[in-house]
Amino acid sequence: MAKNKKSPICDYCGKTASQIGFLIESPKFNEELNGKPAGSRSYICANCIDNCQTIIRQKKKISKNKFKQNFPSAKEIVEILNKTIIGQEKAKKTLAVAVTNHYKRLIDGTSSHFDVDSPFFDVNVEKSNILLIGPTGSGKTSLARSLATILQVPFAIGDATTLTEAGYVGEDVENLVLKLIREADFDIPMAETGIIFLDEIDKIGKTSQSVSITRDVSGEGVQQALLKMLEGTVCNVPPQGGRKHPEQQYLQIDTTNILFICGGAFVGLEDIIKKRIGCGSMGFNPHKTLSDDDWILENVTDEDLVEFGLIPEIVGRLPVLTPLKALDREAMIKILTEPKDALVKQYQKICWQDEVKLIFTHEALEQIADKSLAKGTGARALRSVMEEFMIDIMYELSDHAGEAVIVNKDVVNGAAAVFSKNAAA
Hints:
Helix content is 40%, strand content 11%. By secondary structure, the protein is of the alpha/beta class.
C-alpha cells in the first residue's frame, strides 16, 4: 500500500490546502530550482494571488499619478511646438489637445478601477485618431517629430507607401506596431500606450472608382488591414518583422489605447472640394468664386475623402480632420530664421567653426523664400535653394578666418559672395 504523500503548502504564506481551501500548482521544474529537485512543483494559494494583484494595482496607480504629474498640458505642448514649428496654429492646438486627452483617458479611464468614487466611473472615453491634411512641405512630419521629442511615451513614425496587403511582397501593417514596440524597448504594456504617426496615407487611396480585375494590394487592401488596428484589436506582431521568419513566436499587443495620427498631402482633394461647393466660373453657381485668401481645405468633409479614395470605414475611424495651410513668403522667412534649428542658424554655425561671420540681408531671405515657393515643395525646398549658393561660400571658408561674408539678393541669384574683414567688425 502506497504511503500518504506530504500535503503541499503555499510557497508564499506556508499554509496548506486544508487551511486555505485550494492551491494552484505550477508546471513541473525541468531542473532544480530554489532548492526544489527537478520534477517538483511550486504552489500558491488564492489569498496570495489576491495580495499580489493588490500590490500590482497600487504600483500601477503610483506610476499613473507620477505620469499625470509629469505629462505636459495642451498649452505647454503648443508653447514647445512654437519653438520649432512656424504657423499651423490650428494643427498644433488640435494635436496638443488630442495627445493630452489621450493620456487623460489612459490615466482615468475604465481600465483604472481605483477611482470608484468618481461620478464618471462607468463612462467610456473613446480615442480620437487624427488625420492631418496639407500640401507637401507644410509641416505634417515636422509636427510629428517634434511631438516625439516632447512626449514621454513611445512614438513611432511609419510610411504607408511601403505597406501591402497581407500575403503580398512588402511590409505588413503589423510592422507599424513593431516599430512602436521597438521604441518601447519591447515593453508591451508601455507600447500599448504609445502613438503611431502614419505618413503618406493618401497614397493608399483606391486607384480608381471603377472595378479592377486585379487586386489593389497596396491601396484598398491596406486600408482594410488598418481598420481593426485603428479601432482597437489584439495584433500578432512578428518580433523580427515580416514573413521571413515564419517560425518566430508572435508578440501580442492590444492597439485599443494606441493613438494613431495620419498625414497626407491629398493632391487633388482641393478640386474635389471646389466641385462640391460649386466654386469656379462655370456650372449652375458661377457667381461663387474663391479669393486668394480663401483656405479651401478648411471645407473638407468625410464625403470628399471618400471620393478621393479612402474607404468610408477608414474615414470613420479618423474623426478629427485637421487641415494645414500652405506656407506663404512670410512663413518661409520665419522658418529660415526663428526656430531653434533654423537653416540660417545652421549655416552660421558651420561658418563660425571656421571663424567666419555669415550675415543675411532681409532682401536675401525674401529671395530665398520666393525661389523656394516657386519649386512647389514647401519648406523642403529651402535647403536645396540655400545649398545652391552656400556651396561656393563654404568652399572658401578655410581661407577667410576672421572675416565676414554678407549674403544679399545678388548672391542668392548666383553672384559671387565677397569676404571682408570690415564687415566682421
